[in-house]
Amino acid sequence: MISCMGEALFPTEVPEIGDRPLRGAARTYRVALLIPLCGSAGLWAPSCISSAQVAVRELNRGDGIAGRPVELIMVDAALEAPTPVEAVVHELIEAGAIDAIVGMHISAVRQRLSKVVGQRVPYIYTPLYEGGEQTAGIFAIGETPDAQLGPALHYLQAQFRPRSWALIGNDYVWPRTSHAYAKAKLRDMSANLAFERYLPFGLRDMGRHVDELAASGAEAVLISLVGQDAVAFNRAFGMAGLDNRIVRLSCAVEENGLLASGGENLKRLFSAASYFGALPTEANGAFKEKYYSLHGEHAPVLNAIGQSTYEGMHFLAGLLGRDDAGWREGGQVIPCTLDYRSARRERATDEGVMRTPIYLARADGIQFSVIKRI
Question: Which protein family is it in (predicted)?
């Protein structure tokens, strides 16, 4: 599925900067925004689209990208999409219809796309992921397990002292790699592994797996299910009454997931992320003001997954600067001097490694309360 975003946000007229026209405005800078529009991860789409639109408005009120006004081209990056995303993206690149990619989708899709995109256009990959992306031309800016999952496991183990953990996730690279990391950490903390399962996407009846988890004797569970699958699990978990005795941790359950799960099913559920809508920072306050000014008070809820597309658009602009070809020189290495706008204040270190604060939050009804930086 492909669509061109927004007459209101992307006018056909040359955007103005004060009293002067945007440089190089003869042609727009077209960014393919790759997000799942259907399937298990489709839950995230409204927030991702809305957040990217805020970035586009900001960019088009400035110099755009590489001196050209920015336009979004929507592409369905769901595994369940009727046309494989790599086929769509290849055709768009071959036709010269896009200048860059900002992708918020699962790692299995990124791996498929890496074989197609090459270095023909810059590709910014925005969500949390398993780490280790080394493909030239792909810039992965999301959290990785060592920064996100490790500190959260240590905190919950110290606070609740569970004797054994359960691991449950979808069957693809991010959950399996994250769980391999988690198992090493659990061994270091002298905690046992009582249960481990990997489920296909779109499984709505989680009852059997919840029953098996309950019978395992686990006192904590790491949930690495995606979108609607995590919602189905949390509903079944709450209905079984397990939230009264088993602690839950996820790195991917966000505010949309809370709304869909229902507050009655969310007791003792924790999430670790670099961004929450309730984050009390100056950067987030400024982002929220722009977000709700553009979309109104009933806009999709803010969350880490959505914010990542906002950040990805600004990262792309910062990467290219005024030279839309210079990004190839560094391959996948992120320049340590790169500066770009973010609602979570992420920057690169002198070693060229991305650093960002990670926070732990607890579900408080259908909202997150940020506990601390970890």
Answer: Belongs to the leucine-binding protein family.
